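Saturday, quiet lab. Running sequence design on the structure tokens for the scaffold JK sent over.
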């Protein structure tokens, strides 16, 4: 069997359907959300699908280039093809999330081909399942949304912030779901907090018994994260903005996090995600793959990963997503008692619905500025687009 071609399918993913359930920036990603799927064809008619993140519009160009490395080769040799693609990009500098995104989708598709050829789901080829149901956590901004997740059997939820952490919202969610449901807080920027401010916020979060406190400081400076780790008694989580084991290495080896969160679409592939989990396991670090902006193919891939690593915590899932999510692939995943069941079909267990994907041509794949409403930035400063910003009105924004 030989690889005959590599096709890409780039689409614009719309806003979530109920904007009253989410803050403005989180509701539609300010027009930047795109999904990039790919399909590897073989000369024997078996095809494999994958998904890439890490600036999908740019990743598509990378895949077009890398197809020259792949066409004519035997798709069975997954690790060798991954290494050849990795080597092919080295002349451009260190592999960032664009390169890692291309590697991720290509490697997913190769695993899909292998599973279909052998008549087995990918998790069977990775040593079999440690667990057959993968627990998930959802996003909640309101009491109604939290209760809807609870009704679906979710045992954990995350409330995301961009800029200012709203302690009133966290308290409301805790009162709404009670002590049996875990709560996580995502505090990512921009604007990002300084280490000093992230420590103050983290200390205020300690009474809520959080599952984790995510991305409190900018990812470029891990020394800032070390300062936060040394001064708060809250589990820390990070890692969605880097790719491959090389991007996650310092988070793990320096014990900077309790939960590592590589993105399944730009983590480097199923093999790399499993290596990250293996690196994290002896440190007592759990794996909780990021999935906040991803499409449905990467979610299938994440299930195979989470089934086969011992230190799997939870998989992120956007439960109340844009309706188009459920039209562009088949079958559609459905939460049962707070978990997603493992696919049993050969390969990844998912196929693209290309006619539906074609209905959503890409318009834009960069984030537009947020509203200057005092949420993402100090009011009146959004136009400055600063990366790190000291919080003002500190008695209100840094205290419960």
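Result came back. Writing it out in full:
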């Amino acid at each position: 069997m030989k690889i005959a071609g590599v096709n890409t399918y780039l689409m614009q993913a719309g806003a979530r359907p109920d904007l009253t359930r989410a803050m403005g920036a989180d509701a539609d990603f300010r027009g930047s959300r795109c999904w990039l799927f790919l399909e590897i064809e073989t000369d024997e008619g078996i095809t494999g699908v994958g998904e890439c993140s890490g600036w999908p519009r740019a990743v598509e160009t990378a895949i077009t280039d890398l197809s020259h490395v792949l066409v004519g080769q035997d798709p069975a040799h997954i690790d060798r093809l991954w290494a050849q693609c990795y080597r092919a990009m080295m002349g451009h500098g260190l592999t960032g999330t664009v390169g890692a995104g291309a590697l991720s989708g290509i490697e997913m598709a190769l695993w899909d081909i292998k599973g279909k050829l052998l008549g087995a789901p990918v998790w069977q080829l990775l040593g079999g399942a440690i667990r057959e149901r993968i627990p998930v956590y959802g996003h909640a901004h309101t009491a109604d949304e939290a209760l809807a997740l609870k009704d679906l059997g979710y045992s954990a939820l995350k409330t995301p912030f961009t800029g200012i952490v709203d302690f009133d919202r966290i308290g409301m969610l805790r009162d709404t779901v009670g002590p049996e449901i875990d709560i996580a807080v995502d505090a990512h920027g921009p604007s990002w907090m300084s280490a000093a401010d992230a420590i103050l916020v983290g200390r205020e979060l300690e009474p809520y018994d959080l599952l984790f406190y995510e991305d409190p400081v900018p990812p470029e400076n891990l020394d800032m994260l070390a300062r936060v780790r040394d001064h708060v008694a809250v589990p820390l989580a990070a890692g969605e903005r880097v790719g491959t084991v090389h991007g996650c290495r310092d988070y793990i080896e320096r014990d900077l996090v309790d939960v590592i969160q590589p993105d399944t679409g730009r983590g480097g592939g199923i093999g790399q995600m499993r290596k990250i989990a293996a690196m994290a396991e002896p440190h007592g670090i759990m794996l909780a793959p990021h999935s906040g902006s991803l499409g449905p193919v990467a979610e299938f891939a994440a299930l195979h990963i989470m089934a086969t690593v011992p230190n799997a915590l939870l998989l992120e899932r956007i439960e109340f997503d844009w309706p188009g999510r459920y039209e562009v692939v088949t079958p559609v995943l459905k939460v049962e008692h707070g978990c997603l069941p493992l696919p049993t079909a050969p390969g990844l267990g998912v196929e693209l619905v290309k006619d539906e994907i074609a209905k959503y041509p890409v318009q834009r794949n960069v984030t537009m500025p947020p509203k200057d409403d005092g949420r993402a930035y100090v009011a009146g400063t959004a136009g400055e687009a600063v990366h790190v910003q000291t919080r003002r009105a500190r008695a209100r924004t840094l205290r419960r």
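Notes for JK: The mean pLDDT is 94. Residues 124-350 form a domain with the TIM Barrel fold (CATH 3.20.20.120). Ask whether to fix the surface positions before the next round.
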